[in-house]
Design goal:
Length: 280
């Protein structure tokens, strides 16, 4: 199975690199950077470079043009805007006060371009690079930057989510790297302990609620003979022919009557008393 690849080169040493500044889009190459580009061009002569694509920023485009001249490439350098370096807003042109990794992973700081936006646009650039690599007969050389170039290589490895990315390592100036384009990897499922505990608590709560409702329904539907009967009034008018109350009324009549006549009356099956029956 043939793998689709491209060669990535970060631009040569820029004036901002020399001055330890955050570069702007028009930061030029130093003389050393131009010399590095010529050296890389000579190194790549045996790689059958057929296309060169570049960021639109001056330092990258100049590097690409010097390499193309060394390779005697007939095609012009193709500029892909999405290969431009991450935007650092108001920090551009100012001293570089942090380690290089900070400028790659910082988010929500000042008006720095969000990482998600950088990832999305280098993914779009990768689509163009892959098409050139698959349709052409030779290699594709990509000339870019430190931060955007790092994310381009991570996306080419099939990664799309920050959790999947390797720790940031800034590409060296004018150093070619062969990059293999891999299929997109699925997002890993990360289970947070607190979220899992909350989910379990909710499930258990729902189960207990359902059990409670079921027990209440069963209790309400149970036969009357299974329940404790309330105190039964002795008035026959309260009987009204309910067979479940018959034995209870007979028992109370027997207990409250001391005469044999009352006991004899209570031993007979009770019938609903006619309206207006006098009390004993």
């Amino acid at each position: 199975m043939n793998m689709t690849t491209f060669i990535f080169v970060r631009h040569g040493k820029s004036q901002a690199n020399a001055d330890n500044l955050i570069a702007t889009d028009d930061t030029p190459l130093t003389k050393e950077g131009e010399s590095q580009a010529r050296r890389v061009g000579r190194e790549l002569r045996g790689k059958k470079i057929n296309y060169i694509v570049s960021s639109p920023f001056d330092r990258a485009r100049k590097t690409a043009e010097i390499i193309a001249k060394q390779l005697k490439l007939r095609r012009s350098v193709e500029v892909i805007d999405d290969l431009r370096e991450r935007g650092f807003g108001e920090l551009e042109g100012k001293p570089k006060d942090h380690e290089s990794s900070w400028y790659a992973i910082a988010d929500g700081e000042s008006d720095i371009e969000p990482r998600g936006v950088v990832i999305a646009r280098v993914e779009a650039a990768l689509g163009k690079i892959k098409k050139l690599a698959e349709e052409g007969e030779g290699q594709v050389l990509v000339v870019g930057h430190g931060v955007a170039g790092f994310y381009l290589q991570q996306v080419a490895a099939g990664k799309r989510y920050i959790e999947q990315f390797a720790d940031y390592k800034q590409p060296s100036n004018a150093t070619p790297t062969t990059v293999v384009i891999n299929p997109v990897k699925s997002q890993p499922i990360a289970v947070k302990p607190k979220l899992l505990a909350s989910f379990i608590a909710i499930v258990v709560g729902i189960a207990l609620l359902i059990t409670g409702i079921a027990m209440l329904i069963n209790q309400q539907n149970a036969p009357l003979t299974d329940k404790k009967l309330p105190d039964i009034p002795l008035s026959p008018q309260d009987y009204n022919g309910d067979p479940h109350l018959q034995n209870a009324i007979q028992q109370q009549l027997q207990e409250q009557s001391g005469s044999a006549q009352s006991q004899n009356d209570a031993s007979h099956t009770l019938q609903p008393a006619p309206q207006g029956l006098l009390n004993r």
